[in-house]
Write a structure and sequence with these properties.
The complex is a heterodimer of chains A (about 300) and B (about 280). Chain A is mainly alpha-helical. Chain A is about 70% helix and about 0% strand. The longest helix of chain A has about 35 residues, at about 275-310. Chain A is flat and about 75 Å long. By secondary structure, chain B is mainly alpha-helical. Chain B has helices at about 1-30, 35-40, 55-60, 70-95, 105-115, 120-130, 140-160, 165-175, 180-210, 210-215, 225-230, 240-260, 260-270. The chains are: A mainly alpha (about 300), B mainly alpha (about 280). Chains A and B meet through helix 1, helix 2, helix 4, helix 5 and helix 6 of A and helix 1, helix 4, helix 5, helix 6 and helix 7 of B. Chain B: It is a multi-pass membrane protein.
């Protein structure tokens, strides 16, 4: 996705003089930017172009001599292959579930933390902690320490109340993956929404309260509209990270039991099956999905950004 | 009276939820100090004797593979890539905030759009490139990739931190005859330094956590800490205390960096969109 999104923000007026001194000065202004820009183009854009090209070839790394151009065959195969189609569906389900649930939980937590109470700082710290566990470690924690049917903490606690002893991961593999991700991403949503809550106009809230609005009315008519863009931002950034999730799927189920999402499938099809062409086509599909999300995300970020710039 | 009660009640709910969210980590910490036999009981043994055996096992004194090479590799990859990110992002952010290039917002959004390009989009060509140039299993190749992974975030964050430096002060310093290095050191740095530090910590966290690149591009020599952890994916008999010790030790740098950057964490994660 190399296209720059045009953000309609008042830019510095365009100067059209072509005197050497102004040109020199323009380059002097540009110079500090160039290393970073060139570096990003080389390291991120070129490989994607290569992926795009490889996606049109029938290329198994084990038979390099049989490599040939096949047009859209790889895409056809990705879209018609039952396993691959399933992984597209899994990716959508995983992303939507994790984002929605952690957004709702994050909103509830942000509302709780927006009030003053004793030890608020400590509770905030406790809540952020799950986000600061290395993702693989978090996945291992859920897989072995919490979900293990014989000695995991969940069944241990159920034991006390005489409950059943389910095999969590085998019974509901996708939900098991989702649970660990929701645990890690709720703090992220909470942080963004808390920042949104704290940027509310206090005078407006005061005025509404003086006018006799109750808590629910204030939430429904003032807080929620104000939070809308923060909710959108959380949902979109969360989607961008979770669409790409590899760690939890790889660790908890190793892509088995129908939990393989697209990133895992791409990884598996070239790293284990050596199907370079197919892997690339699947990769391109992930990119197309991401662009759709990203277009919305960029719009939200740019509207928040514009507000920021105009305020400054 | 009623309002006071309700306020305390909701405070109590917040405390309860906080504890529930923290419980898995607390339990992981407790288990890491139990013996393997006590770690794998049902019902759980809360009050079992504490021991450092899990940590001894993890650090390889019990005969297993030592985690030190992986920890050192992760440190090199995270610290070096963060240093490169700062080196590239600081001048770029300067050109996007203090002395702005034309169309600076377009440039800013180009950086952001690269962050939205999924890792798998370029993984295969990057792997093939590494393989053909003998860069597989080389930690410095990961450093380059981690630099590109974090550069957009850093540019965005630092752009917003540097924009907070009032232009009037810079102009005043210039009128007083201060040259650029002096202005940067005496005027810009003191205001922007906390933000730069937070940016560095967030880049460190993302590099330390990364698995997919490391898993595909490293092997025996350049293995990082998360790759080391994937060795625990399949159960190996009684190994819970060891897994907990390993997960905790490897997460400690991230927990420390995260709490240190707590105030700027949201801004970094939202790419500077939320302050």
């Amino acid at each position: 996705m190399s296209a720059t999104t045009t953000a309609p923000i008042a830019a510095t007026p365009v100067r059209t003089t072509h005197q050497p001194s102004t040109r020199m000065r323009a380059w002097a202004t540009r110079a500090p930017l160039l290393p970073a820009l060139v570096f990003m183009i080389v390291v991120t854009q070129l490989p994607f172009v290569a992926t795009l090209i490889i996606s049109f070839f029938d290329w198994n790394a084990l038979y390099p001599k049989a490599r040939h151009f096949t047009g859209f065959d790889n895409y056809k195969e990705v879209l018609t292959d039952a396993d691959l189609r399933h992984s597209v569906w899994t990716t959508i389900l995983l992303t939507v579930t994790v984002v929605l649930v952690s957004l709702v939980l994050g909103l509830a937590l942000a509302l709780l933390l927006d009030r003053r109470f004793r030890g608020r700082g400590i509770v905030r710290t406790l809540l952020i902690a799950p986000f600061l566990v290395v993702p693989v470690a978090a996945a291992l924690l859920w897989k072995h320490v919490l979900f293990n049917p014989e000695y995991g903490l969940l069944n241990g606690l159920l034991h006390y109340v005489g409950g059943p002893q389910p095999d969590w991961i085998s019974n509901n593999p996708l939900i098991a993956v989702e649970a660990s991700l929701i645990w890690q991403w709720t703090p992220f949503m909470m942080l963004i929404l808390l920042a949104g809550l704290q940027s509310r106009d206090n005078e407006q809230l005061e005025a509404a309260r003086v006018d006799g609005a109750n808590d629910w009315q204030i939430f429904r008519h003032l807080t929620l509209p104000h939070l809308r863009r923060y909710l959108e931002l959380g949902a979109l950034l969360g989607s961008i990270y979770i669409v790409q999730n590899f760690d939890a799927v790889f660790t908890i189920t190793s892509g088995g039991l129908g939990t393989a999402n697209l990133p895992y499938t791409v990884y598996q099809s070239f790293y284990q099956a050596h199907e370079n062409g197919l892997a690339s086509a699947a990769g391109v599909l992930v990119v197309i999905g991401s662009i759709i999300i990203a277009t919305f995300a960029l719009r939200v970020v740019s509207s928040l950004f514009r507000e920021e710039v105009s305020r400054a | 009276m009623n309002a006071v009660l309700r306020r305390n009640g909701l405070g109590l709910v917040a405390w309860l939820v906080g504890i529930v969210f923290f419980l898995p980590i607390a339990w992981m910490a407790l288990t890491s100090f139990h013996s393997e036999a006590d770690a794998a009981t049902n019902p759980p043994s809360f009050g079992a004797a504490l021991t450092l055996d899990g940590y001894r096992e993890f650090f390889g004194t019990g005969g297993g593979a030592s985690p030190w090479p992986a920890l050192i590799n992760s440190t090199v990859a995270s610290v070096a890539s963060t240093a490169f990110v700062l080196l590239l992002a600081l001048p770029a952010a300067y050109a996007l905030s203090i002395r702005r290039v034309r169309k600076w917002t377009d440039v800013l959004f180009f950086f952001l759009s690269t962050k939205m390009l999924p890792v798998v989009a370029g993984l295969l060509p990057i792997y093939l490139f590494a393989k053909n140039t003998d860069m597989l299993d080389n930690i410095w190749f990961l450093v380059i990739l981690y630099t590109s992974m974090n550069l957009p975030i850093a540019v965005w964050m630092m752009q917003s931190f540097l924009s907070e430096v009032p232009v009037a002060i810079i102009e005043a310093a210039r009128v007083d005859g201060a040259r650029l290095p002096t202005i940067l050191a005496r005027v810009v740095a003191p205001i922007a330094l906390p933000g730069i530090a937070a940016t560095a910590l967030i880049c460190f966290i993302f590099s330390w956590n990364e698995l997919l690149f490391a898993r595909v591009l490293t092997g025996v020599v350049a293995e990082t800490a998360p790759v080391f952890l994937t060795g625990f994916i399949t159960s190996q008999g009684l190994f819970l205390a060891k897994v907990c010790a390993a997960s905790l030790v490897i997460s400690l740098p991230v927990l420390a960096a995260g709490f240190a950057a707590q105030d700027k964490l949201v801004q970094g994660l939202s790419l500077g969109a939320v302050k």
